Structures are given as structure tokens and as C-alpha cells.
Amino acid sequence: MTVVKAAYGRLLLKLSGEALGGESGRGISPAVLSAMAEEIQNVHALGVQVSIVIGGGNVIRGITAASQGMDRANADYMGMLASVINAMALQDALERTGLPTRMLTAIDIAQIAEPYIRRRAIRHLEKGRIVIFGGGTGNPYFSTDTAAALRAAEIHADVVLKATKVDGIYDCDPETNPGAVRYERLSYTEAIHKNLAFMDQAALALCRENRLPLVVFNMNVRGNIHKAVLGESVGTLVEPEG
């Protein structure tokens, strides 16, 4: 019998909030949640330690609300709370599949989640629990991409898997430019110098400084998360230099 072995022992999966809304990108789709939970269950079955950061863009995007006149700090705090709502929904879906989970939040909400404590998060992972980080970094002006890079560095993850609605990183927006070229591999230096808009610069810098490989792939293709964890070529791999 062939033994399937994961390429990574501990990972951080970054999910977009918009993905929970399905085609509309708004609200929460139970069907999408169930599909996500099944994908994560398949990865967990490989013996991989799984942590997750999820955005809140299906409810509100702080930077968008700020561009429409709302105070940026208030808008960002609302976005953090939206990410907590999404984390709760994902936790519920995962637990319905029988997976043990813990939700830790950067904002203190004792009634529904544990406060984020790095050592506690690592211990949960070591015990085989899926850890969901909610509330971003707990600070305005930082995206959930930055939260993902920060938490991945703190828990010593082997890789960051960024699940998006496109199949990798392009030299320009593939939705508006049919001639956009997809990269198979990139270094962090290339990604930063080319100002590629798949992740904010703070998140990229954190990944680069901590030598965290990053895989960007289409989460709407079933099995892609599993393939990425096995180290198969899927999407775009961003690697540390040297």
C-alpha cells in the first residue's frame, strides 16, 4: 500500500472571507462551509497540524469602508469582528465533521473564544486540534494577510497556504487582462520589486524575513489544498532566497 506523506508538518491556511459567500462573495454559504470543512478534514487526516486565518471581506472590508468616509480605525475593528464571525462559522462546520478545533482571537471575546496566546496555540496544534485565529492582529491598519504571516511565524509553521479565487499569482489582473501571465515560482524579492498585488507588503516582508514559503492557489478547485500540502505543483510558489 502506498503511504501518502505530507510535505509540511505544520501549516497556516489563509482563507478569504469573500470565499465564504460563494459566487456573490457576500454573507456565508453553508454549502461553501461544508466543502471547506471536507477539504480541511482530508488534510488533517494526513497528520498535518493545521492552523487557519480567515478574513472578513464577505461582511465588511475596513479599507473599503474607510475609502467611503468611515474612520479607518473603526472600519478595521469592524473588519476584525467580521473575521471572528467567519471563524465561528468555520469552527462550527469543522466540528460537524468531527474535527477538534479551538478558536483563538486577538480581540478578547471570552464568551466565544480563547484569547490568543502563542504557547497555547502551539500546544493545541501538538494535540491534533485545528486552530482558527480570529480578529486579525488585533490592531487597525493591518490586513488579515499580515495576521496570517505573523501567526505563521509565531507558531513556526512550515508554510503559508493562501487560498484565493484565482489559480496563482499573475503579472497583472487576469480578470481584466486576458493576456495576464501566471508565475509558477517567484522569490520574495521579485514579488516585492514587481509590486505584485496578491498580498500586502507588510505580509510579504514578514514571510520573507522568517523564510516562510508561500503557496497561492485557487481554493474553488476541489482537492487543491490537499495537493498543496503534498507538495504537488499547484498555483504559484513564493520562496525565500537562497
Task: Give structural notes.
The chain has 242 residues and is an alpha/beta fold. It has a single domain (10-239), classed as Carbamate kinase, CATH 3.40.1160.10. The protein is 38% helix and 19% strand. It contains nine helices and eleven strands. It has helices at residues 17-20, 30-44, 62-67, 72-96, 118-126, 144-154, 188-193, 201-209, 224-229; strands at 10-15, 49-54, 101-105, 114-115, 130-134, 159-164, 169-170, 182-183, 185-187, 214-218, 236-239. The strands form two sheets. It has a nine-stranded mixed sheet with strand order 4-3-5-2-1-6-10-11-9, with helices on both faces. Strands 7-8 form a two-stranded antiparallel sheet. Helix 2 (30-44) crosses helix 4 (72-96) and helix 6 runs parallel beside helix 8 (201-209). The radius of gyration is 17 Å and the shape is globular. The N and C termini lie far apart (36 Å).
